[in-house]
Amino acid sequence: MDTSPSLGEGPLPAERHCAIFDTALGPFGIAWRDEAVTVVLLPLIDREATIAELQWQSGGELAPPPWPAFVTHAVAAMQTLLEGEPADLQHVPLDWAGIGQFERKVYEATRRIAAGQTCTYDELAQSMGNPGAARAVDVALARNPWPVVVPCHRVVAGGGRLGGHSAAGGIGTKKKLLAIEAAMAVRQREAR
What we know:
By secondary structure, the protein is of the alpha/beta class. It has two domains: 16-82, Double Stranded RNA Binding Domain, CATH 3.30.160.70; 101-191, Orthogonal Bundle (Arc Repressor Mutant, subunit A), CATH 1.10.10. It contains six helices and six strands, in the order E-E-E-H-E-H-H-E-H-H-E-H. The protein has a four-stranded mixed β-sheet, with helices on both faces. It has a two-stranded parallel sheet with strand order 5-6. Strand 1 and strand 2 form a beta hairpin. The protein starts with 15 loop residues before the first strand and ends with a helix. The model is unreliable at 2-6 (pLDDT under 50).
């Protein structure tokens, strides 16, 4: 007797959704399935280009608000951070499907870098217990599907150079993000 599932049986693929939201840097995109974020997209040349790329990357359709609570929290936290105010993105649930073990270690370590702080690719590799893996860390961060939530902009090259930034806007976006967070850190220190 054949006990293998026939075509059409088994769990249905998770529905994919995405949304565009405004920030101080322009329209960002976010995508999710089930209870986790699959993609964060920084602004492209215009809103339409951002929507098209978001839908292509996520395979999802635009969903109007109200969004699930975890999406609403992620959006509000990113908007707050990009306005130069403290925001907690540590608890935004991420969809780890398709992410390798090394990349996951890199992304989890990167999430622990506080706003207003930076570290080098080499320092991040050492903090993960992988000395000498700076290039592999750089490659993993270049594929980061969740910029800002996984703050890859906080990881810089040695010698004070910013290094690359593969997200939309490239090095210019990295400079803007670091400037926003540096100003926020100064205000926090002065308030103490």
